[in-house]
Structures
1.
Amino acid sequence: MPFGEIVCGSPGSGKSTYCYGKYQLFTALQRPISIVNLDPANDTLPYPCAIDISSLITLGDVMDKHGLGPNGGMLYCMEYLEANFDWLEERLKELGDDAYVLFDLPGQVELSTNHESVKNIVEKLTKNSFRLAAVHFCDAHYITDASKYVSVLLLSLRAMLQLELPHINVLSKIDLLSQYGDLDFNLDFYTEVQDLSYLENTLSASLPPRFSALNMAMISLIEDYGLVGFETLAVEDKNLMLNLTRVIDRATGYVFVPPAGSNQPPGTIEENNTGPAIRPNTYALFSSAVAPLQGPGSDVRDIQERWIDAKEEYDAFERKEWRKEGEMVRDQAARASKIRERKAPASNLNASDDMQL
Ligand SMILES: Nc1nc2c(ncn2[C@@H]2O[C@H](COP(=O)(O)OP(=O)(O)O)[C@@H](O)[C@H]2O)c(=O)[nH]1
Ligand SMILES: [Mg+2]
């Protein structure tokens, strides 16, 4: 049964970068992964692409042929893909039953909030036995301003209700957050979306008083649904990538069993002496359990410390570790080449002996 992620979110929120980061991570973990680019405006793809919508249709052609602007052209492309779903279906079949597919969507928000094509495509994929989760990206910059934060919450809620998939919201580029000044609240306030009434004062300060009733109505609407929460991501932070992977695996029910004889990076599987076939990724195995996820990157307070409160200290520490690692690699290489040199004259000697004989 194929599994996958619908990677959506506003333009520039980090979808394509995430797809590439996940491709690198999964390749290192020897987990299957294929990326399908469904954004016809993506000219330069950072990742190796298994299926590319631009071999079916391109935004430029649609705009030229039908006299449409970029936004209308994008909607046309998605409708065209929906009408030609068999094109996608055929290519997905070639990826096999064990495929794990990332669908990199265009950034136009209406595609995942109110336009029907993406929803219909997702429905068709689910009927084709795909187990999917929607991974919705929002730039973490938005949490620095209360009114932008409320708009992001509404957007995420709308996408959740529209796509009708297990839904994971992600605050992306968390590593840049400390650049935007102090947050009004701790990071967990924004990720857990618990008591939004605390935002009332900040919202009233930034908007004319006539909006205050509207603000409170929006806040209570979001709270009434009680659906929105956020994971955090800095694409270069391995712990955050692994944690997000666990969250998504749990949502889709994916269990990864590492291939026999493979060496997995520490912390990604349970380490004991049993063989790999009976040593699956336990984080994913308990996907149906309701217990909170554990492991590095899962506690938002740690993330606040790493990326906001003590970012510079951690960055300096990491740089030092990398330097040490670099020196070790260089030393090893130097030692290996010395050993080679020492062996080389002996073998040359043998070769000349052979010639004399
Ligand atoms: N610092 C930082 N930059 C990021 C991160 N993810 C994406 N970006 C940058 O954000 C920009 C937009 O990313 P892209 O993946 O093209 O966004 P998309 O339009 O949603 O596909 C690029 O310049 C990326 O390098 C991240 O985790 N940290
Ligand atoms: Mg992109």
2.
Amino acid sequence: MNKNWDEILKKYVYKINSPDGRDTFGSSSELVRKIIDFSHFEPSDTVIDMGSGWGNLTINLSEEVLKVIGIEPNKKNIDEAKKRTEERGIYNIEYIKGSFEDFKCKTKVNAIVSSITFHQVNPENKRKALANVKKALNEGGRFILCDTLILFNPFSELEFFNSVYRYLLSRTTPDSIYEKYIKPNMEEDSYIYSWEDMKKYTPEKFWYYSLNELETIVDELEMKIEEIEKLSPFFGILKITNR
Ligand SMILES: C[S@@+](CC[C@H](N)C(=O)[O-])C[C@H]1O[C@@H](n2cnc3c(N)ncnc32)[C@H](O)[C@@H]1O
């Protein structure tokens, strides 16, 4: 199973020391294609790319739609994205400094897309982040969320969650966090890690969230999860509509 997961991660994400100097991940060209195909954008759409980073998805998306607004909190990442955009002679992208929590965009759009970013929003801010997404969407608009999240029930599938926990934390948590918080607490193989353990041993910023938690917030905000493409039990693309 783990070998299969390695292949999935290798296919869809690449490890990078990002322009802002962090050990993180970027969407591979295969993932960018998958997100675009899943989204069914119209050529007349204006789309927000939230957490646009160094312009990976943003630049490819700009070929499919009228305009892309890349929103990103880190200036160094924006500068790199602008440089790459200019080098390619692309004129339909606007980059704005902002975040899920601090949404500066004044225009309402039909679609917001976000790739491997939402897990970086602190758990207590996730509701506010999604409320901001809703505010920026026209009625019937959609939020295309591609991210790592637990797509099964971690409480009823205890042993499966344990294997995902052991795998994911070793592969996706930055080395410095893994060495300091997780490795010292790694129990022998017979120990079954639970959802509560994930919270106990991992700094809040690195907690995984589950489909179930997301669904609760989406329901409260009167939005709807319309479609899910599972790329693995812990990674997928979701279409969330503003009803
Ligand atoms: C893993 S990178 C992904 C970049 C790009 N979306 C991609 O798929 O290649 C995550 C990006 O999200 C940004 N980010 C972090 N926290 C954020 C937040 N709360 N709201 C929006 N973006 C955030 C980071 O600065 C970084 O550029």
3.
Amino acid sequence: MATTSKQQAQETTGRSGPRCPACWGIKRRRAQALESDDLHTAVAMTVAMGRHLRAAHS
Ligand SMILES: [Zn+2]
């Protein structure tokens, strides 16, 4: 009945692999936090990344 087409970020930059939106968001947030000297958030994002990797990419 319902046809849902998932949008997939397709990067054709070698084998580094297309990152999922969650990875992207976390990475970007962490970079922004580091840029604004927000170590607390940066560390939190690192932890979140680790958790996400285990949960979604293990
Ligand atoms: Zn991910």
